[in-house]
Design goal:
By secondary structure, chain A is of the alpha+beta class. Chain A folds into 2 domains: 77 residues, no CATH class; 90 residues, Proto-chlorophyllide reductase 57 kD subunit B (Helicase, Ruva Protein, domain 3, Orthogonal Bundle). Chain B is α/β, with parallel strands linked by helices. Chain B has one domain: P-loop containing nucleotide triphosphate hydrolases (Rossmann fold, 3-Layer(aba) Sandwich), CATH 3.40.50.300. In chain B, helix 6 links the parallel strand 7 and strand 8. In chain B, helix 1 packs across helix 4 and helix 2 packs across helix 9. Classes of the chains: A alpha+beta, B alpha/beta. Chains A and B meet through strand 2, strand 3, helix 1, helix 5 and helix 6 of A and helix 1, strand 3, strand 4 and helix 4 of B.
Chain lengths: 173, 300
Amino acid sequence: MKFLCVPCDQPMKLAEVAPPDRGSLSVRYACPECGYEMAMLTNPFETQMVQSLGVRIGPEANPPGGPDSLAAAAAGIVPSGAAEEAKSSGGKCPFAGMIPGLSESAKDGAAAGTNGAATAPVPWTDAATARLESIPSFVRPMARTGIEQFARERGYPAVDEKVLDEARDFFGM
Amino acid sequence: MKGYHDIAGDGGSNVLQQVLELEGRITANLAQVRHLVAVGSGKGGVGKSTLTFHLAALCRAAGWEVALLDADLNGPSQARLAGVAGTVPLPAADGRLALPRARGGFGVFSLGSLVPETEAVEFETVSRGASHTWRATREFTLLSEVLERAEWGRLDALFVDLPPGAERVVQFADLLGPRASFVLISIPSELARGVVTRSIAALRSAGRPIAGTVENMHGYACSGCHSVQPLFRTGSESRSEGGAALGDVPVLGTVPFDPELARLCDAGIPVTERPDLPSYGALQATARVLMGLFEEERPR
């Protein structure tokens, strides 16, 4: 979809993606010639269609993970690449309701595992977090839950890359 | 006034370019995969998943490096077949997705590893009551992510277990690209053969290569008298020992219905561990034909 400023005959540029509101995105465009601004307001069906494509919504200048991308992620617009749904505010695992033992708070976007001492959160090192964020978003919450359980059962104080490698070996991958 | 094609990009997110870049990353991640073998039918309940798993296991046992992608997101069964239900893929050192391995040592991606059989596969959505408008797109995006990020490595064949739907095989052909060749599973009933024929027509009209068909449930392997008895008594089963061809598409093999094989499937055990079964020889012969076909030349 493209937008044209008719008086200037110039393509309008995406300027900002506002925080989502009840499934609707507000995307502001501006004409680089005359500065005229307009906003595209999506309905939930349109938002969902874009979300289903797995693409980022935001100005070209913003790299993945930038502010606008994160705003889109909160609406579920960034299923791949830019943000960790289980950590970002409002983000959710698409299958959260199906993860056995996953607490309601985890389903609502907090890190998995807040159901008492047996599921106390295990801190992750930055390197381990980066590895987790590199895999498809729909797997991350379940991978996180499984790895934290693996670490907890072995008394590891944190999840680092060594723990990830050990878990992989343990599960024969 | 400028038209759509007069303007480069879309002035913002460049959604089309993002989709094209994803296709490029999929191609790159599959660069070391020699053959993409998509196993479908069009008809449901003919044993696509069962045959896909055991053919992959037999190819692995014969020396091929293989992996398996369960593309049936609404009825994922490869996790149970491979004995990896509940074993979640993990992040590998290179940022790819390390896959659970079936007995026999090949990687398997199936949503059944992530979602218990007691639960339906559902996606989070911001739009209520309109899943028919976006769900298929979301499913193909998920499969794209797996194709792009899974740690396939150097493979002789990546087997892809397709969901039912005659016309849907073409959608999967588009997802997998021109390198994919199709193996279609049928059974000796005119009903099933009709649907598979429709799948062949759909693939042909899209110009996609079809390696051949496999006729499953070609007779019943009786454990009492140790012989294969007629199961359908009509159609191709009675016409040909080697299975009746559908048009000019070659028959790669026939496999009898084997209750003991069904038990192995429930337990996550590949047929390679039970060479005494009547279905073993038929599946092994089919796997050999398939391997020979791909070693000789790419199917047309």
